[in-house]
Amino acid sequence: QVQLVESGGGLVQAGGSLRLSCVLSGRIFSNYDMGWFRQAPGQEREFVAAISRNYGRTYYADSVKGRFTVSRDNRKNTAYLSMNSLKPEDTAVYSCAMSSSVLSGYNSPRPRLYEYWGQGTQVTVSS
Questions:
Q1: What digits encode the pLDDT tens for the residues 82-107?
Q2: Pairing with 36, which of 20, 60, 116, 126 sits 20 to 30 Å away (CA)?
């Protein structure tokens, strides 16, 4: 059974930092590219970042470039999203997802390329 479990969300003041984790079980982690998405209340799901299974190629939404960093540790079956300089508009439920497709800067924002999704973790940034 495939399972993605996120953790690390919480309440933080604007300008603060959080690091989200996403642990995969039931599949070989190094066989998948990983992505992070977020969804705020009343809004559509939004791509945040992605990382390739090999060589650590990373892709970011313009809204988070320079503030967020996506990484992974294949030995721990874990992907990370380090978020700095958080803003109130970053408030959302953050979910990780896994893709057997080879992601690029062009296709990584497409949710349909991701086969499995976690339940998400809430991030709230207060002003």
A1: 999 999 999 999 999 999 999 999 99
A2: 126
Q: Which of 32, 34, 39, 66 is nearest to 49 (CA)?
A: 34
Structure tokens at 34: 């990983």
Output the six-digit token pair for 14.
């604007």
What does pLDDT average to in each consecutive run of 10 residues of the chain (127 residues)?
A: 96 98 95 97 96 92 98 96 98 98 94 96 97
First to last CA, the chain: 40
Helix ranges restricted to H, the chain: none
Spatial distance between the Cα atoms of 60 and 68, rounded to a whole number of angstroms? 8
Q: What's the CA gap between 93 and 10, in Å, rounded?
A: 10
Identify the DSSP state of 101.
Answer: S
Amino acid at 99: S
> CA-CA distance, 120 to 109, in Å (whole number)?
17
Residue 10: predicted pLDDT? 97
Could you tell me which of 42, 44, 49, 50 has the C-alpha nearest to residue 63?
Answer: 49
